[in-house]
Amino acid sequence: MRQTLSFIPTLRETPADAEVKSHQLLLRAGFIRQNTSGIYSFLPLGKRVLHKVEKIIREEMEAINSVEVFMPALQQAELWQETGRWYSYGDELMRLKDRNDREFALGATHEEIITSLLRDEIKSYKKLPLTLYQIQSKFRDEKRPRFGLLRGREFLMKDAYSFHATPESLDKTYDDMMQAYSNIFSRLGLNFRAVIADSGAIGGKDNHEFMVLSDIGEDTIAYSDSSPYAANIEMAAVQMDYPKSDEQARQVEKVSTPDQKTIAQVAEFLETKPENCIKTLVFKADDELIVVLSRGDHEVNDVKVKHISGAKLIDMATPEDVRELLSCDIGSIGPVNLPAGVRVFADNAVKSIVNGVTGANEDGVHFKNVTPDEDFTVEAYGDLRFIKEGDPSPDGNGTIQFAKGIEVGHIFKLGTTYSEPMKATFLNDQGKAMPYIMGCYGIGVSRIVAAVAEQFQDDSGFTWPNAVAPYGIHVVPVNVKDDVQREAGEEIYVQLKAHGFEVLLDDRKERAGVKFTDADLIGLPIRITVGKRAAEGILEVKIRQTNETVEWHKDEVLEKVR
Ligand code: ATP
Ligand code: MG
Ligand code: MG
Ligand code: MG
């Protein structure tokens, strides 16, 4: 590609609102532009990187017989209502109406769509297993879109879904995916780690996140200093199974602060109310009284809260109970007014209820007319630190250390979480209707572009690895007004292209300094500078990752770049 015919708007200054290196450089080197908060356009160079990442993902998906499809982003609300996620997903789900007032969501993920697709098509165990994937834009109204492509509101995801007749078959595909993911991230040159994860609001059993180790990661990984153990911090806290003994448990209860008194009162109060519908957890951390609300049927979170250090799980509180114990108004009565120092944590299911989303799917659990963030704060579990560095590793080997990670992939065994409520069944070998056993497997394709960008750069710009570089070779005639230089540059460009190389030719009439600065910014792996010595056939070559420079004769270019 000739630079004069492409669109590579480089910037000299670092954009003020870009906080992290990858975002700054993707803007400066002309790879992306922001449209509005969390929404980006990919310019030609950015699009090429994206394409390379997609290509690697496609190859590894096809290698394990995962087959590509393309599903709609615009999804009718009815499907989301079948699984209840219409109510539980909360504000992150982008909702809209058509001209007839029919409700839709913009796909945040595609479990409902694919389950509904297959339930009408696959009736026999003989057609299973089946794994389908797509690469498509996803929409999530993130509370804090930030760091450019790392957390967008519209972003590209590879999402795969597998369907099985037996748990063993799911295990096999899960293992294949695990391997495929490792291949993908290795080929991308990323410094990553697979960690045991908690499935949060989605439900299900085995569950791993793939984390790129990076200081700007928003996730915390807890790993053992002397074993392969690695989990996300939430899961590590669960696996700690703390407090381990009655003695430790009693010590936690013995803390005598005014807040503790409140906790005891709360516990006593709620224990007398067995048959209601919200589970409440009250505990003290960092001198704050923390209340966790979790919907009664939310198994995964129940497991999680039961194991929190120093926590007391109180089953089945009603909104009235919560209101009374917090001496605040919840429900249709009026604004919530929590006592100072109280933070409320809730899973997504409860969040939508607390946030007053109308039509929450259980009677008696609506918290209406309240303004979150004004009347009180609702946060996700993840912020709670229940495990510290230096704690014993849950696997019994060594002690826990923390590292920051960027979640680039996530694989889950869903089981029948979706197929059961959606009545998606097949006939097994006994002729009996059974819900499909499912798995789902996501990769943040656009997030990966940022993760790679974050890892591969130096003070003057990108240092793309070959696997994802927008072009492999940059041919830079220093002065295109000089016939010898221009023609030599053209010749090399045409020759390399004819041999299948991806080449960018800087045919602009710019000063040498501008060209070199831009070439460093863009960061293609090999730069061939055609300067004054072109007349003798001598070219100056820079290997961008090492900044090493060598001289090549123009006749040896082909053999050297191979
Ligand atoms: P996060 O914890 O970062 O919010 P998630 O757990 O909500 O991510 P998943 O539902 O597991 O995300 O989606 C699969 C993958 O999609 C993630 O592993 C991540 O790589 C990517 N992803 C999720 N949200 C975003 C986003 N807002 N912008 C870019 N990529 C994202
Ligand atoms: Mg998220
Ligand atoms: Mg996550
Ligand atoms: Mg995830």
UniProtKB/TrEMBL annotation:
Entries under SUPFAM superfamilies matching the protein: Class II aaRS ABD-related, Class II aaRS and biotin synthetases, YbaK/ProRS associated domain
Keyword DNA repair: no
UniProt keyword ATP-binding, yes or no: yes
Domain Aminoacyl-transfer RNA synthetases class-II family profile: 38-465
UniProt function note: Catalyzes the attachment of proline to tRNA(Pro) in a two-step reaction: proline is first activated by ATP to form Pro-AMP and then transferred to the acceptor end of tRNA(Pro). As ProRS can inadvertently accommodate and process non-cognate amino acids such as alanine and cysteine, to avoid such errors it has two additional distinct editing activities against alanine. One activity is designated as 'pretransfer' editing and involves the tRNA(Pro)-independent hydrolysis of activated Ala-AMP.
Stated family: Belongs to the class-II aminoacyl-tRNA synthetase family. ProS type 1 subfamily.
Xref: NCBIfam families: PRK09194.1, proS_fam_II
Record-given protein name: Proline--tRNA ligase
Gene symbol of the encoding locus: proS
